[in-house]
Write a structure and sequence with these properties.
The complex is a heterodimer of chains A (496) and B (283). Helices cover 7% and strands 51% of the residues of chain A. Chain A has 496 residues and is mainly β. Chain A has one domain (30-495): Porin, CATH 2.40.160. Chain A has an 18-stranded antiparallel beta barrel. Chain A is globular. Chain A starts with a helix and ends with a strand. With 283 residues, chain B is mostly beta strands. Chain B has one domain. Helix content of chain B is 13%, strand content 39%. In chain B, strands 2, 3, 4, 5, 6, 7, 8, 9, 10, 11, 12 and 13 form a twelve-stranded antiparallel sheet that branches. In chain B, a hairpin with a 2-residue loop joins β4 (94-108) and β5 (111-113). The radius of gyration of chain B is 27 Å and the shape is globular. The A-B interface holds A 245, 284-285, 287, 307, 309, 311-314, 316, 338, 340-349, 351, 354, 356, 359, 361, 364, 367, 369 and B 11-12, 15-27, 30-31, 33-34. β18 (343-352) of chain A pairs parallel with β1 of chain B.
Amino acid sequence: MSRTALALGLFAAGLARADWTDMISLSGRLESDIRFDIDDYRGEKPGDGFRFSINRNDAIVHAEIKPFDNVVGVLDARLRFYGFNEANSLPALADRNKVDPFSVQLDQAYVAVKGVPFSWLDIKGGRMQLTWGSADIFNQVDFANSRDFYDPMDYARKVPNEMLGVDLYPAPWLTISAVWIPVFKPAMLPPSTSLAFGIDRDTNGCLQGFPAPPLEPSQTRELMGLFSSVDPCSLNFSTPEVRLFMPQNGIADSQVAVKAQFSFDNLEFGLHYYRGRFGFPVAYNAVAHANVSTDDPTKVDVRYIAEVLYPRIQVAGFDFSYSAEWLADIGIVGEIAVIFPEEVTFGLRAYQGNTRLYEASATNVASTPFVKATVGLDYTFTKWLYVNVMYLRGFFDEFNDRYGVHNYAVATAELKFLNDALLVRLAGILNIDDLSNVANPQLTWVAAPGVEVLAGAFIFGGSTVPTDPFEYAARSKFGQRAAGRSFAYLKMRLTF
Amino acid sequence: MNLRAPGLLLLLATLSCGEHSDGLERLEALYPTPKPKTEEERPIDDIGTPMCNGLDGNWAVRLVQKGTIEPLGQPWDLTVTDLFLASKSQAGTEMQLRFCNQDVAILADGKRTTLGQPETPATLKSALYLHPLRVPLPGDGTFAARDVVWLWGLEGLANPLTDALPTKADYQGDARVIDQDNDSFPGVTVNVLSPSGQRYMVRRGIFTFEPGRLALSNQWLTGVLVHQLTEHALGASNTTLETAAPITPRAEGTMYQLRCVGSTYTCASLEKDHAALFKDAPR
């Protein structure tokens, strides 16, 4: 019997073994999400606000298929309708995809085989989202997938990636996991990110300033001095172009993550290693081209082109979680990552026509190792009150570049009323260094089993203006406009 | 455990990426710095409106004279480039070349050196300009001449081609030696860059202009030049400059080139632009 015939025979035997409906488990969510911007000073221009920013409907399906006891296929798919018309011409009104745009997103699609070829080995491959670490969301040792920050309210999301992995079970208390990720995918960023490079103009459109590049303040003064002698109303700064300098997808650009997870009674801890790239971009270079306007010789057109890159890193990490009766069942979690980065030198040039007016460079990322860490406690005081507090050294997107790694306090309190039908959740993050903050009060009403109605707000606090216009690190973390808009939201969700 | 701990530290110490992304290098790749332009690539002054018909018209002239000298026993390559503005005499019997400048390049072991390199002072340029180099024309519309003598600091030679030139030892009282640049020193004065100083000297150039080729466009006239240069120092501000190294002519690369220019074209432009002006000359 040929191998193909054998395989077909086994497949047919599998089909005959049981009804397919027994092999598939389905779960998912239907979710409607409406958001309204409640500030008018954090947008691209002052006064740019008070409008609906999201009007979204998601249908999310999680399917697990188990054709055999030791085989599982996992599928996470999302059908997302955006709720805003994108048609801007009469012919486009004939296009349903423009009038009612949507996307299909495949968050996971992978196959896992357990106990093959050895009983102590599982293998899996496909499109996956891994989460490693003990802390709640703020995992510092978790690098396999880049973050999906498109939606600031859903910062637990990841950018799915194709990978191959193995899990080894050499002892009951030890699991060793390893994944190989051939192709690097960067983090998704919120649309407001481009404001980090935004040009400040007054109501007449005249230049007021531009963000400091990652240079020494004295160099930034020299650079800005080039423009100080020119009438700011004569400068036509176009919207800066920020390009990605991506890896070449060679074998050396692939990523590897390894974890050894130890489990004991009340204690779990893991040792981590990662080699790859940091998922958030770091400023690499910039060039400004100033040319006399062809339309108006009294004006100067200024075009600013920047490149960002994803620095190569190696990471050694450790995480743990512990809870015990003698500690009144308080849960303690901690993660620490020592990151060994490649050195990144930022370069900048300014040209007038073909003449180079200015050139400067400065170290943006030193090759010195640095630490990111999380430590947190959570405790259920009563059946209606739960509190979680954390200290963070380094937010998701922070790297040891000229902006630096900052310190944060994160706190969440959940209060349940009316037999858990009503949940009040108060969450906030405070940047301890610059005191900027984000607050997320939310009210959840369980209208029926599996049906939630949520109302809340996501509010940014802190100065939108840097404390020093010549200092790259002088922007407040959550105050700067690149962090996003403050908004109120209303959601309705069915979980099944 | 005691054995494992140092091993772990060693592993961590070797984790350093050791790689570097340099933003300036990337900018240089994206926006390469233009290489400095050679003399030939530099933009040139306006040459006016060239209007040449046969040999009639105004010409910028370059006499490129290759040779070697041996001031220290080893042969050094020498290129003497004389620059002129030229036009036919009113009678049409000769081409009158009015001197603009002389450019001398000396290569020692392939590298340019200023040792012994002369420069022409403005007073000498003016003096030579006033006494043009006269190249007799065959009269048939072509350009060719043999044994044209060009003298610096000398006059009244009985046999200009063959008379021995006066030397430092015998020039006193020699009526043939004149102070052509009127600077109170005998002969003419040239500046020497290294060792720095002035040399007072007489000079004779003997040129044979082989028949020239007039381009169809009538913008170029070029041909082979045969040259013989003799210089005798009569004195110097620095005694080390009192010996002028004999010049051995080399035929290869020795040539004359004429480019038609407008009547407004000047010596100043020619001095500055000659490398670029003649870069497209027919070979």
